[in-house]
Amino acid sequence: MNVTEETGGHPVALVAGASSGIGAAVARRLAARGSAVALVGRREAELKEVAESIRAAGGTALPLPLDLAEPGAPAEAVAATAAGLGPVGLLVCSAGAIRLAAIHETEERHWERQLRINLTVPFLLAREVLPGMRERRYGWVVNIGSGVGSEVVPGSGGYGVSKHAVHRLTELVHEENRDLGIRAVTVAPGWVSTRLAARPSDLGVPEEEVLDAEDIADTVAWLLDRPARMSVGPLVRVEPSASRAAAGDAMTRHLTRSRDRGAGPTQNAGTEPAAKETP
C-alpha cells in the first residue's frame, strides 16, 4: 500500500545513512512527526532495527539496504521510495566517510571514497528528487555537513574538502530552487557523541559537554517547522557550547595526540572516526 506524499501534511522522507547515529535519530524524529520514512544504508540488520523501532512507535518505515556509493544506487533508492511510499518530499543526506590525514599523506583511494560518499552521493540524490519537487513546488533537501567544513583544520584531508564542498552544493540547490517552494539547508554539527566518534574522556572533555544525535534531530525538526516565508541557512552550524569541545580544536588536539603517541595521522579524531563510514 502506497502512502501519499503529504500524509498528515508531512512529506515522504528519504534518509541516507539511516542505520545508526545522526541518520537514525533524524529518521525516528521524522517518523514521529508523521512522515513515512525510507531508510537507506549499507547495514541491513541495523536498518531493520531502526525500522522496527519506528513501526513500534506507530510510524511508517521502509528499509532499503543499499551502498549509495555504488553506480546507480542513488537512483534506485529514490525509485524504491516512490514505489513503496510515494514521491520524496524531504531528502536527508547523513551518510559519510572520513579518513583523516595531511594532504601529502592521503591515499588516492581514500580521497576518492570520501568525495564519492560525502559529496557525489548527495549530488546524485538531489538530482533525482529535485525534478519532482520542482513540479510539485514543494520540497526539502537537508545535508548533514560538518563544522570542519567551515574551518581550515590541518589533517582533515579529503573529509574537510568534501564537507566544505557539500556546503556550496547546498547553497546552489537553495538558490536555484528557492522560488519554487523548495528549501535546502546544510546542518553542520560539531563534535557529536556517537559510537563512531572519539570518546570525550580521551581528550579530557566531559561527556555532557558534547552534542548527541538527538540534538541534530532536534535541529532538523526545528528547521522543518519554520513557516514557508522564512529561510534559515542555507548553512546552520550546531556546536557544543564549551570551547574545549569545539570540532576543529578537538580534531587538532587528537591528531597531535596521535602523532605524539606514534599512532600516525589517520587515527580517530575528536569529531568523527578516522577510517570509517556512517552506514
TrEMBL record:
Superkingdom per UniProt: Bacteria
Region Disordered, annotated ranges: 243-279
GO biological process, any: monocarboxylic acid metabolic process
SUPFAM superfamilies in the cross-refs: NAD(P)-binding Rossmann-fold domains
Pfam families on file: adh_short
Annotated InterPro entries: NAD(P)-bd_dom_sf (IPR036291), Sc_DH/Rdtase_CS (IPR020904), SDR (IPR050259), SDR_fam (IPR002347)
Family per similarity comment: Belongs to the short-chain dehydrogenases/reductases (SDR) family.
Protein name: Short-chain dehydrogenase
Organism expressing this protein natively: Streptomyces microflavus
